[in-house]
Structures are given as structure tokens and as C-alpha cells.
């Protein structure tokens, strides 16, 4: 099943003329989208709490207001703050300043999909969700190169919500490569599925692989370099994105091609097991709303919950080996601390 794709020719930047865009949150996505909007000719103000990100917005030349005031000033309000804080911020600081005919834009479908945002009924609600971290959204805009993005209309109070969504998408550079028609439910479900099914399975594969290889007497340095520290998996995924899953095998040796394809055929039973597990995650946890209810209930305790999970995950010997290697003399590993986590929906 294919979805409609919107391009620059489908979007009219004139829709933004005379309207102020209030970007709530100047983290990774906020700073990128705000700068792209400004460079596209939009009038942009920033709503942010008093923190380092606010200081950065000032340095970048934006008019920076409190969140309450920014929501009152803007006719289009972009919610670019983390999922878990959006319901409280919207209820206490954004919704009171909205007027009939305004538009709220989300970059993540999560809170809309699970009914966690209490928004007035006389405003438009749309989603413009880049599938890129903020730095890439900014870089690709500057180079005139598109990036994946999902767009949807969740409420059309004015009859022109789609026009506004597409104008925002074009202004941030998303329609340069084609923005795909979607829904908050689809965006949230796919994002959560990747986070809860695909990546945990990748981590489990690496853990099991380390255990088998270490037990066979291979060194930690060689094992971790082979598995991921060399950066080779990132290169493989880049080729997959460029060429496709099977066609990228052409850049591997014939020994590698034969081994991969042979054991792909022998993994049918594993695929069946994963299918059952993934179906339970998708239907039993995500689409049922069970995960959203659990995560929303965590509230202010989120950081300590995440820390406890990280501490437990950190007890695996693979993590100990990785830390030892990273701390060794000559290691070039660097850690970056952005205003928001690198993988943020907002």
C-alpha cells in the first residue's frame, strides 16, 4: 500500500504570510526548524523556559518569549518539546493562549494518538514530523536536499489545515524530497515499534554474540571492533538506505554474500519467533495504549526510572568490555551533550 507524497509544488509558502509561528522549545528540532522557517521568510518567535536552549535562541537572533506569551502571539504554534512534558505544558501554558482558527503543529504523533493533549475544539491540529534529527534537518535544508517527513491533519476546524501543514513542511525543507501523508497514530506506532521491538532486538543480538564469541576465547577488542566499534554497521545501513537490503550485498565480498544469504534461509524459525514477539509488542503494548498509560503514569519519576533501567542494562559484560576499551589510552571517543537527547521526537 502506497501513501500520497507531497512536494514543493503542492505547498504554498504564501499561506504563512501575516501569521506568526511560535516555536515552543529550542532543542534539537526547535532550533533547526525555527532557523529553516526564518530562512524561508516566516516570522518566528521562540517560546522557551529559562535555560541554555533559551540562551542559544537569543544568540541565534530570535525574539524569545515565555511559553505563555509565545502561544498568545503565534497563530501557528509548533510543539517541539519532549512527549512526556507536552500534556502539562499545553494545559498550563499553551492552550489558554490559543484562539479560534489558530493551528497547533506537532512533530510527534504520540500525545495525539493516545489522547493526551487537551486542545480547544476550534483550532486546527496537524502533524509535520521529520524523520531526522535536528542537525540533519538544518543541514539538508541548507543544501537544498530533502529528508523523510510525515504529515497529517488531525483536526480541520478551518477547512484549510492541510494547506497550513504543507506550508510548514515546505518552510522547514521537508517537501524538497517529498513529505508522506500519514496520521498521528501511524507515526506514533511506527516510532514506538522501532524503539520497543527493533532496537532492543539489535541490542540482544549483540549481547548474545558477545557471550558466544568471548566464550570461544576471542579478545574484547577484536569482538567489539567487528560488531560495531569500527563503524562498519553504520556504513552497511547507509548502503541499505541507498541501494536496498539485498542490492547492497553487492558491495560485500562473495564470501560475505554467500554466508549472509545462506543463514538468512536457515533463520526462518527465528523470523517466526520474532514475528510473534513483535505482534505482541505492536498490538498488546503499543496500539492497545498500555505502554502510553504506563509511561504517562511515570511522570516526574521518569529520570529515575530510566536510570534504573540503564543501571540494569549496564551489568551485561558487553557493556563492561565496551567501557574498558573506550577508556583505554588513545581512545578517540567523544560524547556530545545537546540541549535535548539526540533521539528526540521534539
Automatic annotation (TrEMBL):
Keywords, alphabetical: Amino-acid biosynthesis, Branched-chain amino acid biosynthesis, Oxidoreductase
Pfam families, per database record: KARI_C, KARI_N
Organism: Pseudonocardia hispaniensis
Family recorded in the similarity comment: Belongs to the ketol-acid reductoisomerase family.
InterPro entries linked to this entry: 6-PGluconate_DH-like_C_sf, KARI, KARI_C, KARI_N, NAD(P)-bd_dom_sf
Protein name: Ketol-acid reductoisomerase type 1
PANTHER family xrefs: KETOL-ACID REDUCTOISOMERASE, MITOCHONDRIAL
Region annotated Disordered, chain positions: 325-346
SUPFAM superfamilies per UniProt: 6-phosphogluconate dehydrogenase C-terminal domain-like, NAD(P)-binding Rossmann-fold domains
Pathway: Amino-acid biosynthesis; L-valine biosynthesis; L-valine from pyruvate: step 2/4; Amino-acid biosynthesis; L-isoleucine biosynthesis; L-isoleucine from 2-oxobutanoate: step 2/4
Keyword Aminoacyl-tRNA synthetase tagged: no
Highest rank taxon of the organism: Bacteria
Gene3D superfamilies noted in UniProt: 6.10.240.10, NAD(P)-binding Rossmann-like Domain (3.40.50.720)
PROSITE patterns to which the protein is assigned, alphabetical: KARI_N (PS51850)
Annotated ranges, domain KARI N-terminal Rossmann: 1-182
Lineage: Bacteria, Bacillati, Actinomycetota, Actinomycetes, Pseudonocardiales
Amino acid at each position: 500500500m502506497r501513501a500520497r507524497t507531497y512536494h514543493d509544488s503542492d505547498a504554498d509558502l504564501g499561506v504563512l504570510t501575516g501569521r506568526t509561528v511560535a516555536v515552543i522549545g529550542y532543542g534539537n528540532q526547535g532550533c533547526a526548524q525555527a532557523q529553516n522557517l526564518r530562512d524561508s521568510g516566516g516570522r518566528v518567535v521562540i517560546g522557551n523556559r529559562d535555560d541554555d536552549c533559551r540562551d542559544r535562541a537569543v544568540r541565534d537572533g530570535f525574539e524569545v518569549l515565555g511559553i505563555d506569551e509565545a502561544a498568545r502571539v503565534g497563530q501557528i504554534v509548533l510543539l517541539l518539546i519532549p512527549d512526556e512534558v507536552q500534556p502539562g505544558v499545553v494545559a498550563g501554558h499553551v492552550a489558554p493562549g490559543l484562539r479560534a482558527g489558530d493551528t497547533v503543529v506537532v512533530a510527534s504523533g504520540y500525545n495525539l494518538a493516545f489522547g493526551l493533549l487537551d486542545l480547544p475544539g476550534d483550532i486546527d491540529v496537524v502533524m509535520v514530523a521529520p524523520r531526522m534529527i535536528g542537525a540533519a534537518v538544518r543541514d539538508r535544508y541548507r543544501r537544498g536536499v530533502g529528508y523523510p517527513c510525515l504529515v497529517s491533519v488531525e483536526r480541520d476546524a478551518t477547512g484549510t489545515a492541510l494547506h497550513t501543514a504543507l506550508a510548514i513542511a515546505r518552510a522547514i525543507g521537508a517537501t524538497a524530497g517529498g513529505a508522506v501523508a500519514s496520521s498521528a497514530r501511524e507515526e506514533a506506532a511506527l516510532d514506538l515499534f522501532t524503539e520497543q521491538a527493533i532496537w532492543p532486538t539489535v541490542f540482544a543480538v549483540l549481547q548474545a554474540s558477545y557471550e558466544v564469541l568471548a566464550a570461544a576465547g576471542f579478545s574484547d577488542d577484536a569482538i567489539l571492533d567487528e560488531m560495531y566499534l569500527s563503524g562498519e554497521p553504520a556504513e552497511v545501513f547507509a548502503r541499505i538506505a541507498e541501494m536496498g537490503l539485498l542490492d547492497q550485498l553487492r558491495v560485500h565480498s562473495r564470501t560475505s554474500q554467500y554466508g549472509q544469504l545462506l543463514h538468512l534461509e536457515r533463520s526462518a524459525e527465528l523470523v517466526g519467533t520474532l514475528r510473534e514477539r513483535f505482534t505482541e509488542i505492536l498490538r498488546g503494548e503499543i496500539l492497545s495504549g498500555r505502554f502510553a498509560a504506563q509511561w504517562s503514569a511515570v511522570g516526574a519519576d521518569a529520570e529515575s526510572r530510566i536510570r534504573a533501567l540503564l543501571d540494569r542494562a549496564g551489568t551485561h559484560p558487553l557493556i563492561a568490555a565496551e567501557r574498558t576499551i573506550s577508556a583505554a589510552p588513545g581512545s578517540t571517543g567523544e560524547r556530545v551533550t545537546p540541549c535535548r537527547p539526540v533521539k528526540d521526537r521534539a
